[in-house]
## 1
Amino acid sequence: RGGSRAPPPPGADAETLAGPGRRFCRLVARREGRAPPTMYFLSGWPKRLLCPLEAHEPPLRIQADLQRTLFAVVSPSQLSIWYSRPSVLIVSYKELPKAALQFGHYDKAEWKPDSTMLAISTVNGYILFFNLLSSRDKYLYEPIYPKGSPHTKGTPHYKEEQCAPLLNLEKKHILDLQASITSLQSMLEDLLVATVDGLLHLIHWDGVINGRKAINLCTVPFSVDLHSSRGSFLGFEDVHIRDMEYCATLDGFAVVFNDGRVGFITPMSSGFTAEQLHGVWAQDVLDGTCVAVNNKYQLMAFGCVNGSVQVYTIDNTTGAMQLSHKLELTPKQYPDIWNKTGAVKLIKWSPDSCVVMVTWEYGGLSLWSVFGAQLICTLGGDFAYRSDGTKKDPLKISSMSWGSEGYHLWVIDAKSSGNVAPEKVCRNEAKQFSILQFQFIKSALTINPCISNQEQVLLQGEDRLYLNCGDAIQTQNPRSSTAHSEHKAIRERGPFSDGSLDSQGLSTLLGHRHWHVVQIHSTYLEINWPIRFSAIDKLGQNVAVVGKFGFAHYSLLSKKWKLFGNITQEQTMTVTGGLVWWNDFIVTACYNLSDRQEELRVYLRTANLDNAFAHITKVQAETLLLSVFRDIIILFRADCSICLYSIERKSDGPNPTASIQVLQEVSMSRYIPHPFLVVSVTLTSVRTETGISLKMPQQACEAESIMLNLAGQLIMVQRDRSGPQIREKDSSPNQRKLLPFCAPVVLAQSVENVWTTCRSNKQKRHLMEALWLSCGGSGMKVWLPLFPRDHRKPHSFLSRRIMLPFHINIYPLAVLFEDALVLGAVNDTVLYDCLYAHSSTTEHLEVLFPFCIVERTSQIYLHHILRQLLVKNLGEQALLLAHSCATLPYFPHVLELMLHEVLEEEATSREPIPDPLLPTVAKFITEFPLFLQTVVHCARKTEYALWNYLFAAVGNPKDLFEECLMTQDLDTAASYLIILQNMEVPAVSRQHATLLFNTALEQGKWDLCRHMIRFLKAIGSGESETPPPTPATQEPSSSGGFEFFRHRSISLSQSGDGIPAGKFNLQKTLSMPSGPSGKRWSKDSDCAENMYIDMMLWRHARRLLEEIRLKDLGCFAAQLGFELIGWLCKERTRAARVEDFVTALKKLHHDFLWPFPIIPVCSINSPLKNGKYRTVIGEQLLKSQSADSFLNMEIDAGGPGAPRSHSWLGTIGSSQREMDAASSHGPHMQEAFLSPLLNKGDECSIGSATDLTETSSIVDGDWTVVDENFSALSLTQSELEHISLELASKGPHKSQVQLRYLLHIFMEAGCLDWCVVIGLILRESSVINHVFSLLQSSEVDGELMQNIKTGLCAVDRWASVDCPGYKPFLTIIKPQLQKLSEIAEEQVQPEAFQPVNLSRVTEQASPRVEENRSSAGHSTSPQSDAGGSTMNRHEGDMAGLEEEDLLQEGSYDCTVS
């Protein structure tokens, strides 16, 4: 088996192609001719089967027998018989030279239906009949097994299945018809032969011409339909049949005449004479070349000279020939070849009648689905071009035949069957001829349509299965990680659950492009090849396969196959009607060979595969189709009846079993002309009326109707509800009297596959109760239910359902109902021709053909349905459907696709559109919050010429821009700015850019700000034709906006004691960022545009200072490269002046999460030592506004060391708790950022130093680690108090670094009043002393000195009343202040400060602080949530990066080492 790269040595029969040791070169893949998705897939390279060297004649024709196990290969004077598996030559018959001269060379071949005889026609008008004699128990090739192998135990049947049988050919009869033979056709017991002289001969297989004489075609009447009383006759003498094929289900012949006309000849009665035959014309075809019929779908495919294939069917009522569809290449897909293919040469339907293969005179292969979807074509892409771009010669085919079950296509290449080169003949060199064997993988839907109500894609090859649920398997495997445990929970829910979670989940079904490949067990395969059916269970965890006999199943979880233990049981059952999973059971309809009885069997998956564990029900007639809906099995039988069975699980005994009972039988013989025509049968809950109009709504989910696909016609048979409805609550479904069925209704034509689901989902009723149809070349259709809104009474004129057609780019193999997705697969190709770049490239298959692989694919279809509903003025239904799917991750893409497609169609239309859809689509999209993004994304992916048409429908882009600003969607606004820049004058662009720039500054979107600066400069310098890219989504900076600071060489985190006495000698570049944005400020500041930008930046900086937002000012300067020092120098006496020291101090405490200072406990008699809390502290302290902080300080200091039920907790009186509650719920609660008792007045806080917003209580036990550490140490009370005070005196480390940085900036700029405020917060007297020393120098403005003195006096007054913790520090710097006052010429008049709101101060007094990261033993606490949320609540304009500061820096637990 296999192919060959060079002629093998004498005696070698074949050589395997591309063995495992082959060295692969770089993959080269051309993408322009990518094959469309399909249901049949090419796999790998074709094999090359080598003819023996003795054969000096090329093969001309190949013809398979009815079972497709034997292939007759005809050469000019030789007949060879090949076997299918293994693909080997069995026997050849060589004609004697003298007889060969008499007969002429062999031409056509036809098999007798039982494969015992062959008829060969010759060019001189002879028919040769050959007998094929079988030698019993003798084999040409036998497998040799090792000793002890299970195969040697005398397995019945195994030899003839696995080995090529020994056959003999014997010429039996010769018949001379005296005229060239144009067509041979086997018809039951007779052979029908057409000759050039216009006669039709009916011949017995024993070689005797029937007693009746040959029929002259001129005497057969032809008309346009069978109703015409008189038909015309063929009006000229030399008419004859060029090609014909018998159609059993239509009982007649499709014929092609030599003049190109085509028709259908049918016997009007049982006889076969000229008087009893009647012909029907196809009026539109005048250039026919060949014909092939499809018995299952009653189709006749006629090939034409122009390269197209016209597919006809017979009208049931008139008998006329009706055009069903055409198979033709389009100039859009194949612009350079579509009209240059030549005439159609061959047409062959696959064994399952699902696909048709077409070849042309000038070469090329194409595969089409039964109703015209193009699946494969070798005239484009890697089939037609080499990796260097040069064109290949297309493969010209002289004959082809499908192999068993459609897994192989046997092809004779015209090159090998053409004339042998004369120089080779002269030299007597033997050329080795070959047959090509293309290999296919196909969808399991083609042969087992019962799996169409599931959501997996299952493909079957001749020895393996391809599944798309590989991810699901890993999630179920107990040995794998538990990362996908949520999928497990989802998929283990009941089969009828309402939630949409019962579908497999997108990550499972769409996870990657690779397949889960299951190799079929070799023991089962070698006896039972070929695989006929395969099925997968609902969860995608188990698969079953059916071969010639028996079946086998495989678990994807255990990775094990189960085969029949008793081989005789396997070999005495043959599955006839398919196989299907029901929960843990396998249901199969089979024929028992030993009892000669049709049976319905149910096997348990977990038990051994044995008839002892099976539930067997006898069936009256042969089962052709089988399907399961919930707990009902539906059988379609050969007598055209449908039988419904209930199936129930019974758990008595060691193994659970299933019991089956007949529910109902329905005869369909009145409506079905031939049982073979039924493609699929399924039970559904689909009805013509919706559940609202039912008399009994609870019946909505029951089995309502039968769907039959009758030769492409979808027929619906639903229950008759016209009679009285009986409510039977308690009776089981098995005992309930089932309603009869109505007469059938035709729903659709040209249907290939049907999908419905037995699940229900109240949120997505449109999608779950719909019926999905695949209609080949016509695309897909959905039969959608229409629901009245808000359960109103439905309109009488509104139909209950609507059929909507739509086109998708893939061939559908499965439908994900809730996820609004279609799954498919696609053939991809890879070129390997560079392997042979330096050698003769004519013989190698790797050069002639690309390597074919199969990939998974999927497509969204929701936008097609929404658009169709809008076209039909069903906007309300479209809204209901869209809102039910709005949570899908790709829903924004759906809206964008719909808008884009309608825009492209209407804006590029050459004809005026009377009723444009774009305004309706625009109005529809405005119903969703994603409207603004959808419009701008669509516009930016569309060419500029269409923008005016788009915005005429959706609204002015200026209005949409302003709407984005109002909704704070700045990134979308930036996209609109690019639209405006192209559509409006520069002045308008600048105006809107300024608005956006200011808003971005306000919100701290620094990335967007940098883009806006560049954009504004581009407008000013006339570079507006190159707009800036739309910024990506703003990512919070992890360093709080001072990220450039970490790259500095200077360390600013040293304590204030190390600050030199002189002015800071920091370089000016300190406030410049280390990125490209800094370059913007270095030069061309004289440009007017830069001045305009500077003015906006200055205005923003001024606002930040006036609002005392120093942290934001630092971020702003760092991110945008703003020269802060220079600007502060100019604004020293204006914006950079501190107006109110107390407010500034409190605001900085708030912004930098810096705790207010507290009085050391030892300065008062410790209440914990004395045990008399209230008497020592006194009433006046509880009334003071610092009581909260003081209380908490006490608990911080003493709590961890004390037992949990310490009595002092009880001493906090109810009055204090009421006051706490009142203070935390006060009128200024929204500013209570540092509140130690956030909304929990009765809980006392204890936490780490930086855990400023934590509200956990000591009673809750949140700090057990701290408790254990403290209890493990024997520390005195005073030591604990000292440690607590140290921890409570500092803020987060990052805040400390930022404050010191700002201190340097302000000192450099000479803003000494701000230096004093920062010095107060840091409580470093050296900073204050340094400021005072600078103030004493003559160059400092006197007004500044007076402002500082006034401010410090105000702080002193405030500290006396509200924050006694500041008093010790103020006492330290008092001598300096007095000294300064003596120097001053004027006395500072004390200003009257307004008393500060009680609740605000109380909430801000919190002692939990940590000095430094390097404190002993940190462990992160769960602090961040409250901090982040509070900060966002109070500072809406604060950048998102500060939030991350909190997460990273805001919390440490402190333990004492």
Note: The longest helix spans residues 1342-1361.
## 2
Amino acid sequence: FLKGLEVLPGEESTKAIGDCESACSKSLAAVNQARVFLRTKTAEAKKYGPETQKRIAEELNAHQSRLEGVAQKVESFKKETIERKMAAMMAEVIDGLSACEKKIEVLVKVAEIFSSDNIETVSTSELKEAVEKTAVAEQEASAAMLEVRKVFATKQKEAKGPDAIAALGKLQSRVNAAQQELAKTKKAAASGEKMIKGKEVLAEEDEKIKQVEADVSSAEKKVKPGEEEAALGIEQAQPSDEDIEAIAVALTSGQKTLKASQRVVEANAAGSPAPLKASLQKLAARCKDALSKISELMTLTKDQRELVMSRAHVREGKAKVDEVETAMEKVNEAELPYLKGIEILDVKEATSTVAVCEAAAAAVQTAINAARNFIAAKNLEMKQFGQAAAKPAAEEFTQLTERVNAASAKLGQFKKDTETRKKTALMQEAGQKVSAAEAAVKQMAEAVEPFTKEGAETEISDEEGEKLVARLKETQAVLSDASSFLAARQKEVAGNAERTETFKDLQNRIKEAKAEMAKHQKVASGHEQRYTAKKLLAEASETLAGMDEEVKKATDACAPLLEEGGEKFLVATSVRTLAAALRDHMKEKALTHEGLFNDVAGGSEGISQDKFIDWLEKLPEALSREEIAFNPERRVAMFKHIDSDGNDSISLSEFKAVFLQRFTCVKEITVTEGLEVAKSKTTFKINTGTTLETIHGPQTDESNGMVRIECTVVSSGKTGFVTMQGNQGTKFIESISPFTTFSEEVDKVIEEALKGLTKVAAFFTAKGKELLNAGKEGPLAEARTELGKLRPKVSAAQDKLRKLKLNMANGKKDYAKKELAEKNAHIEARERKEAEAITGPAAAKVEAMEAAAKGLEEASKPLVSLSGADLEAFATPVAIFEEAEKLLEATTKSIEEAKASVAEQLEKVPKADPKTPLKGAMMEAKRDLQKMLGKSVAVKKQCATAMASVRAKCQSIVDARCADISGLLRKEMQQKSLSLENLFMQIVSPGDERISEAAFGKYIEGLQGEAYKAEQITLLCRHIEMGGIGRRRFEAFLQQYFVVVKRIAITDEFDINQAKTLRKAESDEVLELLDGPLKDEKVGVTRIKAKSLSDGVEGWISLKGNQGTPFLQEVEKPHYSCQAEIALERDFKIDSADGLVRTLKADEVLELIEGPRKLTYEPCLRVRGKATSDGAMGWFTARDKRGIVFAEADGKYYACTSSVAMTDNRDIKDCKVIRKLAVGELFILEEGPVEDTDAQISRVKGKTVKDDQEGWITIKGNAGTTYAEPSSKHYCVLQDTPLTKKFPSSSSGEEVRVLTKGEAMQVLEGPKEEAFQPETRVKGRALSDSAVGWITMTSSNVKPWTPYYKCKVAAPLHDQLAAEGATVVRQVEVAETLELVEGPAPDGEELRMKARAEKDGAIGWVTIKDSKGKRFFES
């Protein structure tokens, strides 16, 4: 795709696009894989010390930048590939559309005249010419548009995916635009055609109307009186009858003409351009005016005109009837041969006589029809005449009609007689044809007689066979003709007994002749088939022989190119190159051909091969012409080419022939006698195709800049100067090379051979069709089989020629490449030197870079080659690591130097642009330099891989020691009952805040004894934290945590086979390491003893399955950062407000101790009610989710179930009724129930809700009737609780009021249960003050925390917690990363932390968030 072709040829395009798509897909996959890898490694890097982490981050960032650059290139490449795919897919549409648009452009240009503002001024001839050209152009454009739409529709069906649809959408607009332009031009052309027709109508009808107007004017002069006569009182002139008749004829004809013209003019006026329409309307007005005058003249001359016209009609009618009678006389003459007494004439005479009779009868019929039509028309016309004129004429027409009818009756009889005579003549002819057929059959019998004799089965001669076949065909033709002619007579004999009898007789005779012929044919057919078959095969063989000759001729003609590779033509090109250089040399030195020859020959008559080669070898340097520096083999070949007579010596004539050039005229041009056109006379003209030759070189006419050459016309011998190329670049003559001549001749030979083979194929096809009905056996069937065997030879020959033609086309292309390569060989050699000078310095740097990379690999080999136990036992990993780092630094420097050198040298490569694209050696140099860049990238990757291997091996050692050393230290803590803080203080050197490498190594050596390996422990120390181990990292080292990534069982014992499952650890559950990791060798599984932070369960868990499935992943101890104020509570369950430890502020950090655990709640009860005190309504909580009761059903409220009286006293015998309580009325209990044993009733004292009346009522009668019972629709408030408008207890801002203890609530709805989602609870320790408690964790109030903070706003690093009065250690810059050492802790309203800068290890206090809430650092 980078060769300059926008759309490649079909198969090449498909392959290239497929390769691009495949490469793009692989590249995208690699990019995505790299992204995932970098993200993973970036996360893993946080486990290392600050310096290592920083170095890794820098390298990973560099890789990330490179990756993003590659990703952009891949995306760009993907887009270009899609565009190229669309271009290839749409190539057919685009090509067709482009061709169509060009044709439409031609059409628009041709039709410009129709859009002209002054089209009415354009002549009709010009318009006609434009219409003709437009029609042709429009036809071509429409055909092209139809083809485009067909291809477009096909592509629409094939289109899949948004890219193809979008591409088609873009093309659709072009198609629509082209269609609109075509339609617009068609419309303009149609208006032009209408203009032409209108102009033609205007001209034609104007002439007609002018003639009628002249006739009317002439009639007016004859009919109307003149001015003098009018003055004398004469109102009407007296024209003669002859004048009236002429006037009447003219006016009647004019009236018809005017009416027809008026219709035509009015029809064309509609839709015509305004100027033409006005002209046509004027013409229509003239028609009306003339018609009006004719009507007036008709009225003035009515009486005389009718009388004159009726007489004229009668005269004309008599003339037509006379013509009828004259024609009848000719009928009588035609019938004479039959009236001489001979009833049956000779066939020939009878046939000719019948033909004459039929022609005479037709003439009479025509005359009769004309006479009758005339009489009928004039009778109708004269009905409008007056009686005086019409009556006499009608009587005359009656007599004429009688004469016509009489002639018609005679004609009918004559026709009948002629028909009878014709049938008789045909029967006569049939008899003659049958006789001729019988005679032919008889001759056939004589011809086959020799073959009926004994021994006639032998092979006959070609001459005999040819005669037999000819006789057979001739007889069959005569017999067939007679049979067909007789069959056609069958209908003609019907109804005539005599002719019927004759017909039957002839039928029998022809039948007998056919039967006889069948016998003869049976005898002759075998010989005839053998002869035909033999002749056919001979003809086929002869045709094939000619075909083979044509193929051989074509093959031989192609040999110089296809077999010899066009070597002789390349030699000829070299000779022409030499001649061009020598011409310039001769011109510069004013040498003649003879002088140059003598210089080379050294005074000899000829130039020997050695002299020529020696001269030619030195010539490039002598002439300073690189293009004539030929290799030794070519110099020898050139000598042989110039030595045309092969005598091993170049003569003067042969030397001159080197300079001979031949040209062909490609554009007609004149020949002048001198070089300068302005000062020379033209001597003659040469036409296209004229051949010229010369030994001179081209010259420039300085006066006009034209290139000219002195030439001789080969055909005439005339000489003069011809312009090779005009000053505007037009070529008039072109050079004829031997290869061009050869190619033209070969093309002709191949085309002639192909035409010949087409004829051969047609011959076989035709003969095959002729033999289709030859049957399955016999000579012709055998001939058909043989032809079938020969036919593949024709196809093979055609294929061979087609292949030869294709090979020739490819050979021409290859030759052109070879020729161009040879012409440019000297340029390529020069460019190669220049290219080597550019690539050399960079190549040296690249070699040094590769050597440095190899040194890194060699240095790291002692470590990276190890594995397993050998690796764990390796004693000096730090030395190897440090050496590798130094070598990596040196190699990186070498890589950068190589890249800089390559970049510098790339700048020296010439810049390419569309006019001068980069190619050849410079392109190769650029590619080599780009490859060097690629090498630098590869070496950098190789070094990174080597260093990564070193780090990986060191990490393996660290991993192995990590478990051992952490286990030892934990064991030490358990044995000595040390806390982490105490252990840290034991190891750290006095006065230090961090454990140094030396202190750590010394303490571990004391624990390990002989197993101690100093460098491994140093490596471990650096892994824990670079620059010394701080408290937090020390704690993290000993307190290892794992997160469950896949559900796995927690067991009570290490041995899997003996262990029992305690429970299953759930995904995302966090576990604290207690012991291990240890490997269960029986099952090949590594296990740890751990404690679950969620519920404190301790047990053994597998890290990975025996198939490698991971169950646990190591993580740092979880910490959480508060995003808002959160209650820190003492207990897991929230029972009351007094369980609050304190409220955690935003940005405080909590260290996980236990959890996360789910806290579930029972549904709470909500009741909708109405306060009895003030009628306030809403929802209140009867029991909350913790089980605390806020209200319960109140037994003091009674509801009347039956009407009952309220009395003032308990004793019903001594009381007064206060009032009657209705059913449903409420009563508040104050005393009772009291049982009245005497009356056997239950009584209560209370107060009515309705009106606060106090008294006693009976709640149960002595017959068991219940008058009142405790109400279930009332609740009593036990604790203050809010009354809200909505059901959910968490509805904020919806409170009606607070219900106080003791209030009564009437139930309106409920109670209803309100369910709650479980809450996630974690137990943690605040880093600021070590406060411990439980919090409810949600996604909005806490987030995971890491001890690394990124600076968002530049801030000072202080030497103490209190910012006031503190000394600034240094300024922390934006994007710097700090690691928490202590805190976060409050300083007044500010939140501060003690941290260590990753950049330089500086330690101090910084403000995370100030008193105004401005944030300086983000975790």
Note: Confidence is low (pLDDT under 50) at residues 2-6, 231-235.
